[in-house]
Amino acid sequence: MLSIQKVNIATLYNRNEEYKSCNRETDREDGSKIQKFKELLNQNIIPINELLHLAWSGVPSELRSTVWRLLLKYQSPNRDANFTIIERKRSVYFGMCDIYFAKNQQYDEREKKILKQISEDVKRTIPDSSVFRNLQIQTLLERILFIWNIRNPACGYVQGMNDIVAPFLVVFLSDYVDIDTTKLQFINEKQLDHLDQRLIRQVEADSYWCLCKLLESVLDNYTNSQPGLVRFYNKFKEILQALDKKLYEHLTTSLSMELYAFIFKWSTCMLLRMFQFEVGLRLFDTLLAEENNYFELCLFIIISILMKFSLKIQKLQYDEIMILLEKIPTREWSESDLSLCLSEAYAYQRIFSKK
């Protein structure tokens, strides 16, 4: 069983039936914080532990691409070795593109089926965004996901991975093209048309490798029996029962309700569908700063969110709860709301630690 330290949960727990936005300004773009990041990044050997600590509470937009590559260990903290290592990885990816997308390439029936599924999912990826409606972006996203499928036969491509690649594509592309991340629209789409294809290919390669780095520790979430998600869900129930027994009993005893479908839906896309895109970028700052513990933090984020709506949920019946969770109110949250939730999730994570 999990152990609870002596902590006053009431200091964290939201006791209002309707969660009210905290409406605080985020300090992510604060000038002094940007300067702290730059001081770290300008060192010949970048101190990764200090960068992890600083990034946990948000990364300035202008520095995200570099910081994310470093947090995922795709980019070396040794500045002298950066170019050589990244160029080698990009070259490997370009070679895979040449193999799997060669002219007159013949695919077997299984590969055709996967390609069709990926193509359909790519078209459904944030369809109201001009970025992801762009045919060039859709094509490179299809390549990334298909190559992932080929190179990871144990799990292959799973719906939700398209959502996970999206932040990497936008952040890396933003180094060269102006993108409004609030509306997720190109400010001037002609910039992409005139962009050097070499740079677009680099964005594609970097997005692929960062996807690989992020998912390498949670591959068992995506295999057929999903053992990782089963463990995740069992731990979710155990912790929710300990933290909010009334909510747990209302869901499981009174309504005989299983939340596995929602946990699966939210966790396979790293919670990104629960938030607006720009808030999702802020979420990724923290998840990437968690290194190998990021998926565990996702568990506590979900619990923190449910507890914010606990009193409301306890008054609802089965169908009403299903409607609430299908259109989770977190879609309206700001970065400051997410930051508060992350702080609470971190506190819960510290409380529940195995002896």
TrEMBL record:
Family annotation (Pfam families): RabGAP-TBC
Annotated SMART domains: TBC (SM00164)
GO molecular function, one term: GTPase activator activity
Entry-linked InterPro entries: Rab-GAP-TBC_dom
Domain Rab-GAP TBC, chain residue ranges per copy: 58-291
PANTHER family xrefs: LD44506P (PTHR22957:SF26), TBC1 DOMAIN FAMILY MEMBER GTPASE-ACTIVATING PROTEIN (PTHR22957)
UniProt-recorded name of the protein: Rab-GAP TBC domain-containing protein
Organism (species): Paramecium pentaurelia
Higher taxonomy: Eukaryota, Sar, Alveolata, Ciliophora, Intramacronucleata
